[in-house]
Design goal:
Number of strands: 21
Structural class: alpha+beta
CATH topology of the largest domain: Rossmann fold
CATH architecture of the largest domain: 3-Layer(aba) Sandwich
Helix content: 10-25%
Number of helices: 6
Largest sheet: 8 strands, mixed
Number of domains: 2
Shape: globular
Radius of gyration: 21 Å
CATH class of the largest domain: Alpha Beta
CATH superfamily of the largest domain: Alpha/Beta hydrolase fold, catalytic domain
Length: 415
Amino acid sequence: MKHFTLLLSMFYAFTAFAQTTSTCDGGRFYDKLYQVDVTTNVEYGQNTNFSGQNQKLRFNFYEPQGDTLEKRPLIIWAFGGSFLFGDKLSPDIVRLSNEFAERGYTCASIDYRLFFFPINQEQTLKAVVRAVHDMKAAVRFFRKDALTTNTYNIDPDRIFVGGVSAGGITAVQVGYLDLTEEIPAVLVPDSASFGGIEGVSGNPGYPSNPNLIINLCGAVGDTNWMAPSDVPIVSLHGTSDGTVPYGSQEIEVTGTPIGFFVDGSGSLHVRADNLGIDNLLYTWQGVGHTPFISTSNGSINEAYMDTVVWTVRDFTLPYACREITTVGVNDAADLLDFNVFPNPASGQVRVNFAKGAPGGMNLSITDMTGKQLLQAPVQVGQIAALVDIGNLAPGIYFVSAQSGEKTVNKKMIVY
């Protein structure tokens, strides 16, 4: 019997009872309704930095003053600076955190590990992966908190990640770099010791996948990493960006080409459209890198910043103020929802679990007569699996996800 390659095993504790929370009354998440409280330098993890030293990772937390909502959406923000410099007090990140906290969001501006020399392809990619590992640890920190002490009153189903420039690159990779097979070839020899996809920056055992991406002048390493069930994304980018390309082009770090091509926001959103991923791209024609903040003195350009805030606000609003229903593993069949990509297919397919696999889930493939050809258990919280279908003859098959007495079936065509 052929076997499944199962990926991204992650623990997720679902609540025992269904609970619905309405969260969008009186202009919440749209209008400025609150003053903001800030808690500084909260440690969320630690890891070895470029120089081989252990570095503690911290965030500043922004929340609406006096807000009593028990489960609030969170935006995790990452600053820009070419992965060489910058910090969580970058003026644009502080401004964005305050803007959204005033509207009822909670925001965490995070530190992540910096610096890499020499500036070449391998060292640049390692810097990106360090930042991705750190942001994933931050996502896990807040999911862990929501399911344990609940210090920050975060809804674990509404964790959005965003960033500027290098921070935008980090956020996009956190959303779309989710399979071991997608690790850039130059990093593969060291990937296991380096931490693989998830990294070891802290809070293991909790999901690191975000529910939405906010990309401000960032890029994805390869649009082929994106799949139909991937999370929504909103981007703002200038067509004349000379730092992070708007389209698909070799990236430069401080003016040095590194021999690695990325897909900027323009290419990323074409791919999102083709895959049916909910997305929005705001394009600044003829405008360069991060026009909302001066790279020389950090001052905010109000006109461009207003565009950023309003665009992100309007796109995220339906996701922030939708009614959230949290269910136990036996409460609803839609927890089993998944899709198969590509379809039609040959050789291998990726099965994407829309809500993370519930406990006791099994995946199987049957032919038109009902004969089971492949089967494997899926671990709790897993969000994707690669399935080898190379030995299946061309024809129509059914992929089934089953947990307890509930089963969801999807048709798959093999050619």
